[in-house]
Amino acid sequence: MTEYLLIALALLGVLILGALGLVVPRLRRRPEPPPPETEVRTRAEEELAGPPVEAPEADVSTGILVEPPPVVVEVPPLVVEVPAVEVPEPTAGRLVRLRSRLARSQNVLGKSLLSLLAREHLDEDVWEEIEDSLITADVGIEPTQEIVGRLRERTRVLGTRSATDLRTMLAAELVEALDPGLDRSLRTAPKDGRPAVLMVVGVNGAGKTTTCGKIARVLIADGRSVVLGAADTFRAAAADQLETWASRVGAETVRGPEAADPASVAFDAVRRGIDTGVDTVLIDTAGRLQNKVGLMDELGKVKRVVEKHGPIDETLLVLDATTGQNGLEQARVFTEVVNVTGVVLTKLDGTAKGGIVIAVQRRLGIPVKLVGLGEGKDDLAPFDPVQFVDALLGTEPPARDA
Fold first, then answer.
1. Residues 138-148 as b or e (16 or more Cβ within 10 Å = b)
2. Which residues are within 8 A (CB) of 223 and not within 5 positions of it... i.e. 6 or more apart?
3. Contact 283, 200 (CB under 8 A)
4. Integer distance in angstroms from the first to the last C-alpha of the chain?
5. What pTM was estimated for this model as a whole?
6. Rounded mean pLDDT of 69-77?
7. Helix (H) or strand (E) holding 48
8. 116 falls in which pLDDT band (50, 70, 90)?
9. Which residues contact 13 (CB under 8 A, 6 or more apart)?
């Protein structure tokens, strides 16, 4: 019994010693205490500060601290490129220079008519073909009947002469149909201490804002100083487009925020023109359909607000020559709202229906004052009936048929 007791005590002693061997090393390996707060901050500041900055050196001979020279970083000067101001082509003789642009219109109003007139026998069938050619060219029924009637009378009285004589007779009749006595001048000179005011109106898609920029170039080419008013506030790009046109010729643009009141912008443009003493203020208005009463009433409001400064000198209606007879209805409605004083006929180079010039004037009594003959920036020309007809008919009359 005593032996068993001794064995149990021995085993108990072994277990106690083993447990102590496991606990004591762990008690010895306690974690190091954290560094003081000041030391932590110092390390963080060093990391943020980057590499150490050298302290000022001391001059050994004098003991005075010497600061190192500052590091100078050279920044290249900012160069702002100012676009060169363009000089528009002179307007005198532009129709003559652009006569090749009327080549497509010559096929109807020029070459085909001359070919018909040059036939040896001008019977009823020939005269009907002449009438059809003029009507197809959008001259209109009544003007066509008058032109053909006078031509028949001339050839009956004078006889069918040479091709040159026939060309001269046709040119005279077309010029007469264009009413050369109409006043086609643009009133752009300042008067009574205020600039002349020109308002440009038209339907959507007629190229009105582009034409407005080209009109500004026409005015500047003729020696006028111009301020442009971007009163088309419904189309986001309209004001930017107009400002681009103006900057090319050194003109100023007055614009407002998007969706601003067009009448307010137009009013501010005229006031700016008065303050700066320019010759002409050119106001671009929003394109609109002639059958939308609300939009047309708003155009009337722009006119009334601008006239608080004084009367509007010119209201120019931009018409697309390719719209044909529909352009006459457009012109009629705009005339009732804002009293149109002149027509700008665009895209005349891209259509064989140049007779719309005659139809507009005969139906409305409004002179065509400017014509657009291409996409170029100086392809807008003052309209002259004689030069226009001469360009339509070309220089060489056809030979007479045998």
1. bbbeebbebbb
2. none
3. yes
4. 162
5. 0.74
6. 63
7. helix 37-49
8. confident
9. none
User: Degrees (nearest 5) of the Cα angle 386, 392, 397?
Assistant: 100
Tens digits of residue pLDDT in 292-351: 667 778 888 999 999 999 999 999 999 888 877 777 777 788 888 888 999 998 888 766
Cβ neighbours for 154, distance < 8 A, ≥ 6 positions apart? 169, 173
Q: Output helix, strand, coil percentages for the chain, rounded to the nearest 5.
A: 50, 10, 40
CA dihedral 149, 152, 153, 155 (to 10 degrees): 160
**H or E segment to which residue 212 belongs:** helix 208-221
Cα 279 to chain centroid distance, Å, stands at: 22
CA distance linking residue 373 with residue 383, whole number of Å: 11
When pLDDT is averaged across residues 243-255 and rounded to a whole number, the result is 92
Bigger pLDDT: 289 or 258?
A: 258
For residue 400, the tally of other CB atoms under 10 A from its CB is 15
Q: Quick count: other Cβ atoms within 10 Å of Cβ 45?
A: 9
CA distance 363 to 377: 30
Residue type, 231: A
- The answer to whether the CB of 58 falls within 8 A of the CB of 66 is yes
